[in-house]
C-alpha cells in the first residue's frame, strides 16, 4: 500500500503537525535533549528518510516523522545552519486525502523503527571509521554525542569478528563480548577466546577479563602507570587502544622486571636510611611465607639536644595546626592537607624518640612490596635462619620463640600513642578513685603504713605517697574525651577546702583539717591520691595483684569514665578502623561500605557512632560499642603487660582490612 504514496518535496515552512500522529500527545518525545542527536545527524547527512505527509487545510501535515520535523524546525531557527531555511525543501511521501488508515500508518512507522541491535551499532561505527574514513570526532558530530561515547562503541565494534559473531548468535552474552575489549589486540582476543571455549564450557565476562590480564597490563592499572615510562624507554611493546586508558603493555615479564627493580631500589634506600643489614623486594607480600619471619621493633631512646629541639618545634607546629583544623569554615582540601602534615610531623617525632638496637639492625632488613597502588615497606623483618642463630639472646626484641610474626591486620601501638593511652587510662582511674573515697582512703593508708612497717618490697609502685602531683603529658590533650576530666572537676568542687586558707599558718590549717568529718577527709585523701596515680595500662595480676584487684573494684568498666573519640581514631590507620568496625563491633557491612571512603570520613563515622550509638544497631552491636576500648586499657579485660612500643603494623590481610 505504501508503494502508491507519491514522492514530492515540501518546503519546511509548509509542514505542520498531523492530529493523527500517535506521538503528538507525547511531549517528552520532542524534548530538546531527545531532538539534539537527530538535529546533528540531519545537519551533516541530510534527511535520510522521507516524511509521510497528508494535505490538510493547504498545509502538509506530518503523519509520520514528527521528531524529524521538530529537528528540521530547530535547524531553520538555528542561524548557524545556513543551508536550512523555511523555503528549504525536503523529501516527503504523500498520503491521499481520502485515506482512512492514517493512525495505523503512523503507528506502523513508529513501531517498526526499533532501536538498532547493539552489535549492529558497534559495527556501524567501526565501518564508518574503517571504510568511510570517518574519525571519532566527525562521528560524534554526526550523531550529536561525545567523542568518548563514540570511542567506547568503536572499541566493541573492533572486537575480533569471530567473537562478535558468537555474540550475535547468542553463543556468548553481550557483556562477555564486551569483556574482550579489555585488550585492544584482535589476535590476543582470538587466542584467549579459543583457549576458553575449547572444552565447550560456559564463558563468563569475569573469566575473560582474568585471562586477558595474563596477556599484558593496562596503562591505567596502578602497576602499568608506575612502570610505563621505564617500560617504553626499554622498547616494550604497547597495544594501543582508541581509549588511551585501555592501551596495554604487552610484555608482562618486562613489566614485572621493572617493578621488582623499582621495589628493590625503594627497599635499598630504606635499608641505608634506617641502617638495616639487608633489603629485598617482592611483587606481592606473601603472608604464608612471611609468617616464618621474625620482626624487631624500635625501642624508646632519650633524644639528644638537637633531636629534643626538633621535637619541641614539632610540638609547637602541631599545636598551631590543631587550631587551624578547628576552623569550621576550612575547605576539605585544606583540611586534608593539614591532616597529612600532622601525620608526617607525628611520625617524625616518633622517629626521633625511637630507635632499633645495634643487635637488631645487624640481622634485620626491609622488604618492599606493591600494595594498594603504591610501594609498601615492611621494616624490621628477621629471616628464619637468623632467628635460629639468635635464639635465646637476652634483650632481643625479635620474635625468636617459634611464634608467628604479628598478624598482618593486628592493631599494634606506636610508642607515642601507647604513652598517650596510658595517660588517658590514668585519668580515668583517677576519676574512679575520686568517686570511691572510702576504698581509696583505705588503699592510701594501707600503702603508707605497709611501706614503713613491712619488710621487703613495696606492696605497689602504682601510687606514690610523696605528696607530689603526677605530671601527665599528652600530645593531644585538648582533643581527648573529657568525661574523666569533668568527673574529677566535679569531685574537686565537692571538696571542703575552707581549712586550706593561705592566710593561716600551717599549724592552724592542720587544726582545721583535723576538725573535718571523716567522710570529708576521705574525699580529700582520695582526690590527692588520685592525682598522684601514674600513667598506666591494665595491671598484670602476676606483677601487681593489689592494684589489679583494686582497679576492678573501683573501675570495672573504663567506659564509665572515658569514651573513644576522633582524637583516638585519627591516630589509627584506616585498616585498623575497618578491622575494629568489622571484627570487634560486628559492623562488617558498614566496614565494607566504608572501605572506599577516606580516612577522614571513617573517623567521623566512628566518632559519631561512639558519641551516640545509632538506633539501627542490633543489641549485640550496641553492647559491643558500649564496651569497646583498646584491650590494654580495660581493667577486667585480657591481661596485658606494659606495652612495648612498636613500629607501624605490617600490611593488613583480613578481608575487611584488605578492602582499605
From TrEMBL:
GO terms for cellular component: chromosome. Residues 304-362 form a coiled coil. The keyword RNA-binding does not apply. Residues 8-111 form the ParB-like N-terminal domain. InterPro entries: Chromosome_partition/occlusion, ParB/Sulfiredoxin_sf, ParB_N. Keywords: Coiled coil, Plasmid. GO terms for biological process: chromosome segregation. SUPFAM superfamilies: KorB DNA-binding domain-like, ParB/Sulfiredoxin. SMART domains: ParB. This is ParB N-terminal domain-containing protein. It comes from Pontivivens nitratireducens. The lineage of its organism: Bacteria, Pseudomonadati, Pseudomonadota, Alphaproteobacteria, Rhodobacterales.
Amino acid at each position: 500500500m505504501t508503494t502508491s504514496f507519491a514522492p514530492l518535496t515540501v518546503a519546511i515552512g509548509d509542514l505542520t503537525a498531523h492530529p493523527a500522529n500517535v506521538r503528538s500527545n507525547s511531549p517528552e518525545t520532542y524534548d530538546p535533549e531527545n531532538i539534539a542527536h537527530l538535529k546533528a545527524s540531519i545537519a551533516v547527512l541530510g534527511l535520510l528518510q522521507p516524511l509521510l505527509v497528508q494535505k490538510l487545510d493547504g498545509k502538509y501535515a506530518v503523519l509520520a516523522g514528527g521528531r524529524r520535523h521538530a529537528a528540521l524546525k530547530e535547524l531553520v531557527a538555528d542561524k548557524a545552519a545556513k543551508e536550512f531555511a523555511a523555503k528549504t525543501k525536503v523529501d516527503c511521501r504523500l498520503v491521499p486525502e481520502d485515506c482512512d488508515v492514517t493512525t495505523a500508518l503512523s503507528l506502523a512507522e513508529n513501531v517498526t523503527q526499533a532501536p538498532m541491535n547493539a552489535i549492529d551499532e558497534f559495527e556501524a561505527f567501526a565501518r564508518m571509521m574503517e571504510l568511510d574514513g570517518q574519525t571519532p570526532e566527525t562521528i560524534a558530530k554526526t550523531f550529536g554525542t561525545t567523542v568518548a561515547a563514540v570511542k567506547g562503541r568503536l572499541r566493541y565494534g573492533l572486537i575480533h569478528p569471530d567473537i562478535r559473531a558468537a555474540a550475535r548468535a547468542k553463543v556468548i552474552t553481550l557483556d562477555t563480548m564486551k569483556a574482550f575489549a579489555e585488550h585492544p589486540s584482535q589476535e590476543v582476543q582470538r587466542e584467549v577466546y579459543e583457549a576458553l571455549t575449547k572444552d565447550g564450557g560456559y564463558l563468563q565476562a569475569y573469566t575473560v577479563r582474568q585471562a586477558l590480564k595474563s596477556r599484558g597490563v593496562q596503562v591505567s592499572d596502578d602497576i602499568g602507570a608506575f612502570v610505563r615510562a621505564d617500560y617504553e624507554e626499554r622498547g616494550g611493546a604497547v597495544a594501543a587502544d582508541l581509549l588511551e586508558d585501555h592501551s596495554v603493555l604487552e610484555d608482562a615479564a618486562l613489566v614485572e622486571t621493572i617493578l621488582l627493580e623499582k621495589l628493590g631500589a625503594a627497599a635499598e634506600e630504606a635499608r641505608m636510611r634506617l641502617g638495616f643489614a639487608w633489603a629485598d623486594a617482592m611483587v606481592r607480600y606473601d603472608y604464608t611465607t612471611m609468617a616464618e619471619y621474625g620482626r624487631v621493633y624500635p625501642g624508646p631512646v632519650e633524644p639528644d639536644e638537637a633531636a629534643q629541639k626538633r621535637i619541641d618545634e614539632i610540638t609547637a607546629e602541631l599545636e598551631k595546626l590543631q587550631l587551624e583544623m578547628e576552623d569550621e569554615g576550612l575547605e576539605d582540601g585544606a583540611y586534608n592537607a593539614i591532616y597529612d602534615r600532622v601525620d608526617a610531623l607525628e611520625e617524625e617525632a616518633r622517629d626521633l624518640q625511637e630507635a632499633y638496637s645495634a643487635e637488631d639492625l645487624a640481622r634485620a632488613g626491609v622488604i618492599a612490596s606493591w600494595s594498594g597502588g603504591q610501594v609498601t615497606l615492611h621494616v624490621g623483618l628477621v629471616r628464619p635462619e637468623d632467628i635460629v642463630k639468635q635464639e635465646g639472646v637476652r634483650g632481643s626484641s625479635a620474635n625468636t620463640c617459634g611464634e608467628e610474626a604479628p598478624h598482618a591486620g593486628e592493631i599494634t601501638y606506636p610508642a607515642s600513642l601507647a604513652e598517650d593511652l596510658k595517660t588517658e587510662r590514668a585519668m580515668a582511674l583517677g576519676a574512679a578513685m575520686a568517686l570511691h573515697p572510702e576504698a581509696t582512703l583505705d588503699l592510701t593508708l594501707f600503702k603508707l603504713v605497709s611501706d614503713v612497717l613491712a619488710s621487703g618490697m613495696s606492696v605497689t609502685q602504682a601510687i606514690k605517697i610523696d605528696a607530689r602531683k603526677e605530671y601527665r603529658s599528652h600530645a593531644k590533650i585538648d582533643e581527648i574525651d573529657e568525661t574523666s576530666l569533668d568527673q574529677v572537676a566535679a569531685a574537686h568542687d565537692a571538696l571542703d577546702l575552707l581549712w586550706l586558707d593561705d592566710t593561716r599558718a600551717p599549724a592552724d590549717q592542720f587544726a582545721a583539717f583535723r576538725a573535718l568529718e571523716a567522710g570529708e577527709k576521705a574525699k580529700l585523701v582520695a582526690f590527692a591520691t588520685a592525682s598522684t596515680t601514674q600513667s598506666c595500662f591494665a595491671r598484670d595480676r602476676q606483677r601487681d595483684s593489689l592494684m589489679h584487684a583494686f582497679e576492678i573494684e573501683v573501675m570495672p568498666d573504663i567506659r564509665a569514665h572515658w569514651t573513644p573519640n576522633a582524637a583516638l581514631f585519627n591516630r589509627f590507620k584506616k585498616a585498623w578502623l575497618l578491622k575494629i568496625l568489622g571484627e570487634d563491633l560486628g559492623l562488617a557491612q558498614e566496614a565494607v561500605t566504608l572501605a572506599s571512603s577516606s580516612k577522614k570520613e571513617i573517623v567521623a563515622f566512628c566518632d559519631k557512632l561512639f558519641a551516640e550509638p545509632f538506633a539501627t544497631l542490633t543489641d549485640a552491636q550496641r553492647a559491643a560499642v558500649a564496651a569497646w576500648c583498646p584491650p590494654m586499657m580495660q581493667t577486667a579485660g585480657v591481661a596485658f603487660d606494659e606495652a612495648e612500643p612498636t613500629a607501624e603494623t605490617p600490611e593488613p590481610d583480613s578481608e575487611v582490612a584488605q578492602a582499605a
